[in-house]
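hey can u run this one w/ fe (ii) ion bound, need the structure tokens asap thx
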Amino acid sequence: MGVMGFWTIALALVVNVCMVCDGGTTSLFLREVEKAVDMPLDSDVFAVPSGYNAPQQEFSFLLLFESMSVHITQGDLVGKAVIVSWVTEDEPGSSKVRYWSENSNHKKIAEGKLVTYRFFNYSSGFIHHTTIRNLEYNTKYYYEVGLGNTTRQFWFVTPPEVGPDVPYTFGLIGDLGQTFDSNKTLSHYELNPRKGQTVLFVGDLSYADNYPNHDNVRWDTWGRFTERSVAYQPWIWTAGNHEIDLVPEIGETIPFKPYTHRYHVPYKASQSTAPYWYSVKRASAHIIVLASYSAYGKYTPQYQWLDQELLKVNRTETPWLIVLMHSPWYNSYNYHYMEGESMRVMFEPWFVKHKVDVVFAGHVHAYERTERVSNIAYNIVNRHCTPVKDQSAPVYITIGDGGNIEGLAKNMTEPQPKYSAYREASFGHSIFEIKNRTHAHYSWYRNQDGEAVEADSVWFFNRYWHPVDDSTSHVLH
Ligand SMILES: [Fe+2]
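ok here u go:
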């Protein structure tokens, strides 16, 4: 063998070793590393609606803490109801929502209720929650909240009727916070030409708990910051660890107090007994929201609910089965490593049995997409404890890169595990665009690029109707 031949074989061996140990792509995208900084209280995105006890669009320094932040979410199981929530600061005002379809001048009125809460030395405004019911599918509605000359008007479009071939486009945002990076993430999502119709939010909203005594003013500012999207399209909420707000040393002993007072979800419609786990159907998707920070061991309410819930999923009606949770099960960053492991052990066999299409999680402040893998063979003694390729398993996507104050997770486990198809430490958002019962286009957008540049994209083949291998890596066996 000549010298050239030797080096050729040596090079081939090196390449081969890399192919075996490298499961997918670790992006080499280089970015300027700057600290994520919260936007100051007088930022225009936090602009307080002026006028006594009610909102306008203009900003007023004098009325900085007299706020109204409006948001909506799905209000029933199938998308014919909407929960409208908002805050009035000075006095209760009215919990009425006036609404009408764009084809009608007849204003209807829905009556709601209001709640308040205290958190250490903070007293909330009057938080209104009003559910509008019996809406027509696929219809634009205008709605108004507030009284007299401080009335504010918004609109939303109801989803199409639940059915198997209904196209629908979901945005994915997680761990958003309220930094300049958060603002960029939200702006990119709003400008994305794929036009998300509903946000699937995978937890960690305001990061108010990073402030002294969990300064709940930062819950108010987050509400005003996100209003420009969430007053016009529903965000489907998942509870993260930054929603727990448990601070016994200052007397705050009720977990999730600010979150549950401010963000209502239609959990009873799916027979859930708590707002942290529930489901909704929307267009051709059945969306299950799980709670990483509520008990999920055997016999717990969440365990029993999910056991029954999975039996109710009808893939002929809703071909796409999507699960949201906060703490990821498959995560190859050195942050929150294996925090999702105990829930994975409990529920992963069910996900494979019921052929979940995709699981979206947050928590890790970076991006990662896996191949279809499962790790359910292990039984303590058989040593089968490595994830294996599994066409009945979901793809796991970590999208905790909304841009919060804690910054990016840049430290990854090496080598990249075989199950990890793509990972990159950049802020961004994703779009899951369902085309029909067999195909969905998925794409991830890093904030450094223009909002239309797909940094990672893949076609999803539905696990029930078209369970063909849709993996992007060929090194996994
Ligand atoms: Fe988190």
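The pocket of fe (ii) ion is lined by residues 175, 204, 240-242, 326, 363 (CB under 6 Å). anyway lmk if its weird
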